[in-house]
Amino acid sequence: DLIRPFTLSMSAEDYLDVPARIDSSISINLPAKIQAQYKEFERDLILEVQENELEAPSAAVLANKLLQWCNGATYTDELKNWITLHDEKLKALSELVEENSGENMLVAYNYKTDLIRLQKQFPDAVVLDKQQSTIDNWNAGQIPMLLAHPASAGHGLNLQHGGSMLVWFGLNWSLELYQQFNGRLHRQGQTKPVRVVHIVAEGCIDERVMSVLIDKDATQKDLLKSLILN
User: Fold this and answer.
1) Residues 106, 167: contact at Cβ < 8 Å?
2) Helices 205-228, 59-71: crossing angle, 10 deg rounding
3) Do 54 and 85 contact (CB within 8 A), yes or no?
4) Is 167 in contact with 197 (CB distance < 8 Å)?
5) Which stretch of DSSP H or E encloses residue 28?
6) Closest to 179 measured CA to CA, from 208, 213, 146
7) Residue 60: what pLDDT?
8) What does the pLDDT look like over 131-147, one tens digit per residue?
């Protein structure tokens, strides 16, 4: 109530010419053995897998490890050594590419292991860097797949001219990163409806992250509405 008289909230979709955004999810199932190990690790916080002992000394570490697990690889020590657990998300993305031939894709990854495996699976993919030439080539439609970490592709980066399809290979908990990354394509100047596709591991922490992001977004919108209501 104290700050309401001094608060102004403007939503881009209410004031700018922004095309529709279509959200969807692709559910993947982990192999039975990997799923059973996932549940065991989630329960016991310790697990021996591929001759490596994984340990989660805290809930935060556990959540991080489980997200890695969903994506298909996990770090095994502090030196960033890692092992591959499955390729289900890579297979799902490959099918998505095949089904959308000729469609340029902006792909969000979460861990360096994701990036390494994505580059191996899609050798022609380009990693978003600080070079203006990379952004220019994408916006010119010359890059079929652009790989980017949400933290490096946030505020002010204009990528809307290079494609209209965004894929979340790896999820994270940050609503700000999630909204800002989606906003790289879903923004003024985009000429096509934007498709935001989430690859989600069924029965795993991925589903919890999606639920939390949706709840956070709803809470944020409710807060803004309450500030501008008389």
Assistant:
1) yes
2) 110
3) no
4) yes
5) strand 21-28
6) 213
7) 92
8) 999 999 999 999 999 99
